[in-house]
Amino acid sequence: MERNETARVEAFSDGVFAIAITLLIIEVHVPLRDHAGELGHELLHQWPSYFGYLTSFLTIGVMWLNHHRVFTLIDRYDQTHLLLNLLLLLLIAFLPFPTAVLARFIETDGARAAVALYGVTMVLIAVAFFCWWQWASGGRRLIAPEVPQEQLDAITRAYNPGTLLYLGALGLGLLEPWVGAAAFLALAVFYALPRDLGRT
Amino acid sequence: MERNETARVEAFSDGVFAIAITLLIIEVHVPLRDHAGELGHELLHQWPSYFGYLTSFLTIGVMWLNHHRVFTLIDRYDQTHLLLNLLLLLLIAFLPFPTAVLARFIETDGARAAVALYGVTMVLIAVAFFCWWQWASGGRRLIAPEVPQEQLDAITRAYNPGTLLYLGALGLGLLEPWVGAAAFLALAVFYALPRDLGRT
Amino acid sequence: MERNETARVEAFSDGVFAIAITLLIIEVHVPLRDHAGELGHELLHQWPSYFGYLTSFLTIGVMWLNHHRVFTLIDRYDQTHLLLNLLLLLLIAFLPFPTAVLARFIETDGARAAVALYGVTMVLIAVAFFCWWQWASGGRRLIAPEVPQEQLDAITRAYNPGTLLYLGALGLGLLEPWVGAAAFLALAVFYALPRDLGRT
Amino acid sequence: MERNETARVEAFSDGVFAIAITLLIIEVHVPLRDHAGELGHELLHQWPSYFGYLTSFLTIGVMWLNHHRVFTLIDRYDQTHLLLNLLLLLLIAFLPFPTAVLARFIETDGARAAVALYGVTMVLIAVAFFCWWQWASGGRRLIAPEVPQEQLDAITRAYNPGTLLYLGALGLGLLEPWVGAAAFLALAVFYALPRDLGRT
Q1: CA atoms within 13 A of residue D108's CA, in its CB half-sphere
Q2: Using a CB-CB distance cutoff of 8 angstroms, which residues of chain A are in contact with residue B15?
Q3: Is the pTM of the predicted complex or chain greater than 0.80?
Q4: What's the complex ipTM?
Q5: Which of B15, B190, C167, C182 sits CB 3.0–4.6 Å from C18 for a disulfide?
Q6: Three-state secondary structure readout of A110-179
Q7: CB-CB under 8 Å, C16 with D14
């Protein structure tokens, strides 16, 4: 299995990440023309759309960064890893939908259901990412020989709490939708900040 | 004909696969705002959209995996193969449309017509993939010299039944739409599971 | 200027081609749900959409093939070529719009205006492609040294009539919209067929 | 940090640029079918959409050219640069939204608000690009050793006025919306023209 085969899996994944992240803007709707008189107010009024765009953009961006970082450690793949990768992409590509639902319903009676949909998707993404990483790193299955074990352990320690944190945000959202939504943004920002995971 | 020319055909194909698979989410519609009170119910109610998303995502994903695998065996291309590749991409890029039709009409009087459209598209994809593979592998036309003949034969044996299986699912769908739809999902899952095709 | 810089221009162009070609499907609309009873008839009835999808997909696909072929002959670029390339991409990315207009209006009083918009876009694409090729090949400005001059001349002879042929199809369309539309499809198929342009 | 890791950041960025630039066409709407009789007039009437398409396409295209040029000078990256890159992409991917708002409202009472949204986005893009370049080039942090310092200085001098120019266009737009919109197009054309930035 040569290096340039891994390259094509990365290229396809990059494509899905890039498209999903860019499609988010489609769900930020242009106000209707008869609102021309109060356009400024209308544009401010749809801030939940911007909030959703920002949160999901950062989340997908951070997932891409991590996906990218892991692939710098891998020097081969197998069928199971391809499938786990496909499952991860399926959930990433799904994210524009719960984002749009959240933006439309966060200020309505449907806020709780909208946050639940968003949060469940986030938790599933965290679980899929965790499985994808575990399969690659467990017993160093797909890891390049020159990668030190401490680096793998540092990454595993960094990724492990992800599912729990997203479950926590989901729980908060079921109690108080806006708090949950804010927690998802906070998590995306937290994960976006540079940290030390051994050598990148 | 150098290796990096094949690389560009792969890159363009990857792009189309990645975009078609990610565009599927556009057809999963956000409920209208006046359904806020029963949003949870509304979201569950549109499960045919999720079903269609899942089935078509897996189908395109599996087609990509196979497309990718075949290109690891090829070390050149010709004009006819480029055209067959374009035809295959034309059908793959078309899939979001029958997926959306299926999701919208599976619970209506139009279910049979919707399944027919979806199934015919699937059969055409299987036929196009078959021709594309036959052109590349027949007489080892585009195959790299180091690839053993048994591996080609194993792949041909694995791909051959595809068209018949999809024709069968289409036939089932004309009798009983839901059974046909379930068969398309089952086929996608079946093809997604890891199998032994000689060395990948 | 190293080879891998050309590679990035190709990658960006491939992205735009791949996205434009895949976005075409967005304009093939799913029938409304209250047409469930006659869905089969509705689906057949919107054949202008399929016609437009097919014509524009083949046209963009063929443009990509030619773009790709030319880049196998080029081993550097300059600012002007980047700009001409951007102009070509601007027109390619525009094509989903006239395609959708053509599909919606070909059977109405607006057919002539729709064909005119489509045809003018096609002519502009042919002109932009011609300039792009002339800039690269004129005086062998960007051509790799090992490419024989006869090959360049064969390509120039093959591309030269393009603008005239598309102007002819536009003229036909202004007289009789459907004849013009058929001519655009015929041209796309004609250019898609394998031909001998020296060594590919 | 090897060269091919930078390559993947470029590939992901290229993907976002290519998708954002191609999605612009989605916001150029097809006239309604009951306007068939005066389709030609309708198509001309929506020239603000074409204006917006052209301006934003050129702007994103030029941003891509500059992004591309800078990456030919960089031979490594760090976490902060990845984040600044993500921020830049977030704003680029946002651009289809203000473009559509501008096209819909430029001829209405909402013109000033629409130009303000568009202009603020443009200013933020210029600021993000400036920070992204400063981080890479400051103290030659990420610059390849063979790049001469004069080239860096020439680029810095060329990019520096960008934010001010876009602020100026925004100011004009607040006074007279159409003048501001024209200024954004003029800036895109100005930056698109070939210039001497030392060796490209």
Answers
A1: 18
A2: 15
A3: yes
A4: 0.90
A5: B15
A6: CHHHHHHHHHHHHHHHHHHHHHHHHHHHHHHCCECCCCCHHHHHHHHHHHCHHHHHHHHHHHHHHHCHHH
A7: no
